[in-house]
Amino acid sequence: MDETSILYIIKMIIIGLVQGFTEPIPVSSSGHVMIASEILGLGEQGFTFAILTNTASLFAILFIYRKDIMRLIVNSIQYLKTKEQQYKSDFNFVLLIIIGTIPAGVLGVLLSDYIADKVSMTTIAFMLFATGIALWFIRNIKGVKDEQDLTMKDAIIVGLGQAVALAPGISRSGATIISSVAVGMKQDTALRYSFMLYIPVSLGGVILGFTDFLNEPNKADLALPYTAAFIATMVMTYFAMRWFMGIMKKGKLVYFTYYCFIVGTLLLIFF
Fold first, then answer.
1. pLDDT (0 to 100) of residue 48
2. What is the mean pLDDT of residues 198-224?
3. How many domains, in total, are found in the chain?
4. Cα–Cα distance between 208 and 6 in angstroms, integer?
5. What is the span of the domain harbouring residue 262?
6. Which pLDDT does position 2 carry in this prediction?
7. pLDDT band at 271 (very low <50, low <70, confident <90, very high)
8. What is the spatial distance between Cα 153 and Cα 159, in angstroms, rounded to a whole number?
9. What are the tens digits of pLDDT across the range 100-119?
10. What is the per-residue pLDDT for 219?
11. Distances from the Cα of 49 to the Cα of 125, 145, 153, 259, angstroms
12. 20, exposed or middle or buried, with CB in 10 Å at 0-12, 13-18, 19+?
């Protein structure tokens, strides 16, 4: 392996780390991957790379929420079989996850060509400003709703928030957490519901894009750098998510307001 190949692998690891760190937090992972790629001179990474790193992040999120996912599946099945009330709240929560997934699922299929388009740094900057402003407005909201208190209306509103995040440069976690807190959820409930919505939408994207991944003409040459990026993304997503869960428990979402404003301003100045 020559020096150029090693340098390329290092750059791909950096991109994977950026994707992994920004996927769980409300700052637009796709926007940050574009910024990092530009700085490193890699250009646009393409749809295949997006599928790969999204899958890595998905694995990390699935691992973190594995106990919740198993509980929801088992208790929902038990409710369908027995109709016992002790299982009803988990069954209802699963229904609300399905309802909240529908808007992004439908629009994701209809607008897939547009969503894949490359956006400018200016667009990313203004999307970061929009996210920062929204985070500022919800910074002091102390929700009271737990999982069992959520309604179909809440699910639809948060689902529409996730659908808005299909627009390039908008943070998915930001849009869903902001809308979740806005409808009155406790911050830990908002975080859990946000990432329960992420799982089916992300899984759907992986399935829909799997053919493109298989048809990648340079799979052999990209195997090592893509594997390195995959591992970097998965590991970083895990630790970033754990860190973000701590931030949410402390009610410090306002930190990301400042971050969005700073990065958005830097993008307008230097790009």
1. 76
2. 76
3. 1
4. 32
5. 3-270
6. 52
7. confident
8. 10
9. 999 887 877 666 555 555 67
10. 64
11. 23, 38, 35, 26
12. buried
- Residue 41 corresponds to which tokens in the numbers above? 């001179």
Among 18, 55, 21, smallest CA distance to 40 is for: 18
CA distances from 151 to 91, 99, 181 (A): 13, 10, 14
Predicted pLDDT at 43: 75
* Residue 109, number of CB atoms within 10 A of its CB: 10
Closest listed residue to residue 163, CA positions, set 219, 113, 101, 74: 101
Query: Quick one: tokens of 178?
Result: 């902001």
Distances in Å between the alpha carbon of 196 and those of 39, 66, 86, 167, 190? 33, 11, 21, 20, 10
Dist. CA 138–CA 106, nearest whole Å: 28
Give, in order, the Cα–Cα distances in Å from 111 to each of 105, 163, 175: 10, 11, 18
In this predicted structure, the answer to whether residue 139 has a pLDDT above a threshold of 70 is yes
C-alpha distances out from residue 3 to 15, 28, 39, 206, 248, Å: 19, 32, 20, 33, 42
Backbone angles phi, psi at 144, to 5 degrees: -125, -5
Beta bridge partners of 239: none
